[in-house]
Amino acid sequence: MSVLANERDVERRPPAGxxxxxxxxTDEHGRRVRGWELALRYLLLLAVLALTVxxxxxxxxxxxxxxxxxxxxxxxxxxxxxxxxxxxxxxxxTIPVWDYAFxxxxxxxxNVVTNCVGSALAGYALARLRYRGRRVxxxxxILAMLVPVEGIIIAQFTTxxxxxxxxxxxxxxxxxxxxxxxxxxxxxxFLNLPYEIxxxxxxxxxxxxxxxxxxxxxxxxxxxxxxxxxxFMGAWDDFLxxxxxxxxxxxxxxxxxxxxxxxxxxxxxxxVAAGTVIAVAPLIALFACLQRYFFRGVGEGAVKG
Amino acid sequence: MASSSSTARVRRQLPTSPWLFAAPGLLVxxxxxxxxxxxxxVNAFTDRRTLIPGTFxxxxxxxxxxxxxxFWIGLRNSTLYxxxxxxxLVLLPxxxxxxxxxxxxxxxFFRSAFYTPVVASIVVVGLxxxxxxxxxxxxxxxxxxxxxxxVGFLSDQWLLLLSAMAVTVWKxxxxxxxxxxxxxxxxxxxxxxxxxxxxxGAVRRFLTVTVPAVRSTMVLVAALSSVxxxxxxxxxxLMAGPDGGPAGEDTTLVMLVQRTGTGLTGRVGxxxxxxxxxxxxxxxxxLLVLRADRKEDx
Lengths: 305, 298
Fold this sequence. Notes:
The structure holds 2 protein chains of 2 kinds.
Chain A: H1 2-12, H2 35-63, H3 86-94, H4 97-128, H5 134-146, H6 149-162, H7 169-173, H8 180-191, H9 195-203, H10 208-219, H11 221-237, H12 240-245, H13 254-264, H14 269-304
Helix pairs in contact in A: 1-2, 2-14, 3-14, 4-8, 4-11, 5-8, 9-10, 11-14, 13-14
Chain B: H1 17-43, H2 60-66, H3 69-101, H4 107-119, H5 122-133, H6 138-145, H7 157-184, H8 189-197, H9 202-213, H10 215-230, H11 234-240, H12 253-261, H13 268-297
Helix pairs in contact in B: 1-13, 3-7, 3-10, 3-12, 4-7, 5-11, 7-10, 7-11, 8-9, 10-13, 12-13
């Protein structure tokens, strides 16, 4: 692949004697990157790519291998000889994988809505409204952010039982339905807005609710998007909490269902592989669509914070 | 309320309305985070079980911990996890961030691709690596075809723990890479140029310019990753199984909490006592990392 990188570099190298072309390769300081250095960079990038994405591709390949194909061959065969979707059908026959996916979707969807609404409202109250007890309210969220969830999981479970909500999807959603970190993220976003626009709306007779909904909220869409993505991924990927709350296999989310599939059918890797592909594919697709938004939002937050 | 003021600076609002805005958040956080935290600490001093309310037993749970072999195994493994994972997660993502920092063609694709393991569920990641590291899996067939022979990554107590650490590092790389990227964007370019003019090579510039400039971020990453590593659950649970590998030797503290505290016969009080140890060590780790940072400043 280093050859390819060299070719690219040659393509972009400005011809001697003429002025620099617009699309030459430069570093973050605007200096040109030398050819051998670029080649080395691409070589390293491809090596890391193989290391980070390779395992997913191997899983995909395993899931497409038919029952007669040897998946344990040495040296390993990376491409399935006769690709088949048979294993995906078998997963659905073995566990209700689409029901589990639907459960995960319900949990993740609910988590997005509650987190966006709850943390936008609370963040606005912390950043923009004046009242006694505001500092205490802010402190409550900071303290909540510092509590290690893994340590309180048993007490969360007993709380949920006292409420009669264990073994329900509502019970899965509730503890994380307004994340303290998201509230503080929204608070910071609202704090950065200039006061003047809200004052103008106030003079025009807008009440608190109208100012929040019509003026403040549309200005923090970027942060709201980051909260939404984090909320979706967090809920879709969560393992420990649903493992503790859910006991009835018909209510399992995808992650718990997969663990169950693995425990019950550990000997058939094709099946487990197909299950993991079903679980990870929607997320990778979602992330691929939103990644530009995502990196920008995270970067902004980090720079401002 | 009819306090219609003439000045724009005075907010026109009902006295209760700010609380209505904050109420959903406060309610959720209060009921499901702060109350369970307090009740964990209270329960640690009782013999509460899943179906039995329990009574105050003083320090009995903590005394029992001292003689519980499983607790010491958990403490050992969680501590080893911090020692193994944190140095790798402080250094490797920084190098990765330097690699993807330059805006060369296609770099956005690489950045996103390196983030994929962060996006994937820990269960998916765990199952992928169980398959890769299996006795007959891809890593072993590659090792065999280059003549090393097969290695029992998932059957040996220490190799299993080491493999789980590697998986944690693998999954965390992209996450910390993003944090470092944001920090690197703030490093003044004059520093690099001055060092270049002075004839410093890439390695020297890394040590004398980059590392000092992102040191506070390195401390942040050390703090975040050490707290996360001490509380490790899913990776080891998935790779070693619910019982924590051969003779439970790979159990971590949070696995122990989950195992002793759940189910119809769960010892909620005892599991809470272990949780309290987890809190104390976590806070201790944070203070230790932050202190180390301040010392170097002096």
